[in-house]
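Quarterly update, task 2.4: nickel (II) ion-bound model.
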Amino acid sequence: MIFDTHCHLNSPELYTRIDEVLESAKKVGVDKFLVIGWDKESSLLAVELAHKYKEIYAAIGFHPTDIDGVSEKDFNEVMSHVNDPKVVAIGEIGLDYHWVKDPAQREKQKEWFIKQIKFANEHQKPISIHNREAFEDCLKILKENRPLYSGVMHCYSGSVELLKDVLDLGLYIGLDGPLTFTNAKTPKEVCEEVPLDRLLVETDSPYLSPHPLRGTVNEPKNIALVIDEITRLKGISKKHILEVLYDNSCKLFHV
Ligand code: NI
């Protein structure tokens, strides 16, 4: 059994042929999917999919590059679903300094990140964190606004040194396609270092296709390649890895 803890089946590349995508994922053992929103429409679609398919769960939230023009009304409309039993996390939320260079805009990202962490805490939900080239500010915010119901550093891109800070916050580490890239020295070191009981596996599909499928549209079925690499790096039996990853995911998201 496999839980893809971060996928965007609500994106057009996958949504338009979702039955086929789910079917091929199930063939490799994926039986749970956490579909992550990034704006109003995608969050609402994640909830809709979670209602339609029993194996799908939803995360709702506003991604740091998608906060422009979002009104309080939009925020409230999305977050009104927080008590839905299939909504298991707030995400993806965080900071993205790769795409956003303007200081005022970065301040706005911080405000939205904090606002959504507080919302998750008030509603007893874990968070799914997007952090790109903003580690220092991201950790500062998380230390000052601790996620009380835990969460995951999705597609962890930090160093082994920063890992301790993230683990001290009680967070999980999400690994995906980049772990399999032949030149991915740091993610491989991180994988070796992270305690097994804090590790999650994800695809971020349709993005981040693992090696040797780089550049193609990613799908949850490709999670098998990521798991194989985790197994190789950890040097533990695949059976054990699968059990632990699944247990971690169910524990974090209370499913
Ligand atoms: Ni994502």
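Highlight for this quarter: Residues 2-253 form a domain with the TIM Barrel fold (CATH 3.20.20.140).
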